[in-house]
Amino acid sequence: QSVLTQPPSASGTPGQRVTISCSGSSSNIGSHAVNWYQQLPGTAPRLLIYSNNQRPSEVPDRFSGSKSGTSASLAISGLQSEDETDYYCAAWDGSLNGQVFGGGTKLTVL
Amino acid sequence: EVQLVESGGGLVQPGGSLRLSCAASGFIFSSYEMNWVRQAPGKGLEWVSYISSSGNAIYYADSVKGRFTISRDNAKNSLYLQMNSLRAADTAVYFCVRERVAVSGAPLDYWGQGTLVTVSS
Questions:
Q1: Half-sphere exposure of B80 toward its Cβ, with a 13 Å CA cutoff?
Q2: 10-residue mean pLDDT series, chain B (121 residues)
Q3: Contacts A45 to B, Cβ<8 Å
């Protein structure tokens, strides 16, 4: 059971906009920034969004993040077939003194 | 180019020990906080441990506290994870991960390729 809650799956058609939610509590998302990671099959995760809504320079602007209260969201616009993979949210948890992850969301491009 | 290369994984019996190493290059290792994150086969990501740039601050996940020890040698640009009293539930790919500096939220910006630890009799 993950500390952060994500839907196990999400889907969309090419060109569509999809969102993936991440729910936490006051000790993690409520008081610390949220980061998102993308993991392609058989590879290490890569940082996709940091500090709630910041993109590393190499990440396309089709990816965006937001946070409100104890929840966060990852949005992917102009969905492409290459976006079909796993996505994880994460945040520092002040009560646990460690990073906590969501269980991951498998995105399918129909 | 930032590189993190893990080594030391393998097959170990329950109750056994293993020491993972991570060789860092392409950045000033002594300036960065580091983490170990693991992923059991077919499962999600689980944070394991954190160590500050100087080694003075260390944190562990409850699942490994008292059994695992994180350490670093800044002179050798290396991160370590000593794993004792290993259990089947510790079977996972272990990633060495750098934490981005001066940014809120402790984002993990560079990941190694991972090393597989299998605990089985």
A1: 12
A2: 97 98 98 97 96 95 97 98 98 97 87 98 95
A3: 45, 95, 108, 111
